[in-house]
Amino acid sequence: MIAILNASGGVTPRLGTALLGGALALWAGAVQAGSPVGTWKTQPDKKGQTAYVVAKPCGNAVCGTMIRAFDQQGNEIDHPNVGKRLFWDMVPQGDGFAGRAYVPAHKREYDGTLKVSGQTMTVKGCLGLVCQSQTWSRVD
Length: 140
Description:
Layout: E1 2-5, E2 11-14, H1 15-33, E3 38-41, E4 50-58, E5 61-70, E6 76-77, E7 85-93, E8 96-103, E9 108-117, E10 120-127, E11 130-138
Antiparallel strand pairs: 1-2, 3-4, 3-11, 4-5, 5-6, 5-7, 7-8, 8-9, 9-10, 10-11
């Protein structure tokens, strides 16, 4: 409850204002929960290597860049794809984001989508009707 001083020097409670403020905060949190912005850990590749990918706004879209790579034991390694942009032009579409994605294993770009659910994000790339996806975990 919020208390406001009235003209006579007394206190007037403002429950409605507090409820509205709380409702807006909850709504903003719900909108943020579906955002791909943050750092994500990829699924292991065929060699058991994983990576951290940072997703951040780029203009009116979201872009993602590989920032670190790890071996099977979790030790940081040098990797030729560190610093490469893995997705870009991702804009809200339906219940996720759609744009372009680069798959290093294929050395190719595809139409891609991102869909966040809690602390995971499904990253999918398609060439025509053939699609592949991975589920990444939120780091932060």
